[in-house]
Amino acid sequence: MGTLTQRQLQDKFAFLESCCLHEAQWRPQDVARVIAHHEGGPDGGTDIVVVELADGGFGVMISSEDYTGHGCRCDSATVRSGSLQEALSHLTEEERKLVQ
Questions:
Q1: What is the pLDDT of residue 71?
Q2: Which of 2, 50, 67, 68 is the most buried (most CB within 10 A)?
Q3: What's the rounded Cα separation, in Å, for the pair 84 and 37?
Q4: Which whole-number Å values give the CA distances from 31 to 19, 39, 54, 60, in the listed order?
Q5: What share of the chain in percent tops pLDDT 70?
Q6: What is the rounded CA–CA span in Å between residue 61 and residue 78?
Q7: DSSP letter string over 3-70?
Q8: pLDDT value of residue 91
């Protein structure tokens, strides 16, 4: 698990919005702090960001890229929840282990 600065989070959002992040439920400016971050790596994999929002809620961003076929396949989404437990419930058990 790594750390993620506000600037890195903004850059990540900008990149994802240019290709595969649509209708984000929260944005970098809504974030009070990054709780956890898992970087998927240069060969694809899953990127996960868990945040506490300034309004007291919690958010998760999950994104993945697959470079194994023809071209690149990108998929990403954000979730906004009232509790950290609820936010983490949107992750698989394997994904939760990556950010604990």
A1: 55
A2: 50
A3: 14
A4: 22, 18, 6, 11
A5: 84
A6: 4
A7: ---HHHHHHHHHHHHHHT--S-SS-GGGEEEEEEEE---TT-EEEEEEEEETTS-EEEEEEEEE-SSS
A8: 93
Q: How far is CA 35 from CA 10, 15, 30, 59, in A?
A: 16, 21, 14, 10
pTM for this prediction: 0.86
pLDDT of amino acid 48: 92
Query: Which residues have CB under 8 Å from 31's CB, separation 6+?
Result: 6, 9, 51, 52, 53, 54, 59
Question: Tens digits of per-residue pLDDT, 34-72?
Answer: 999 998 766 667 889 999 999 999 999 988 766 665 555
Residue 39: phi and psi, rounded to 5, are -90, 125
pLDDT surpasses 70 at 3: yes
Strand, coil or helix: what is 94? helix
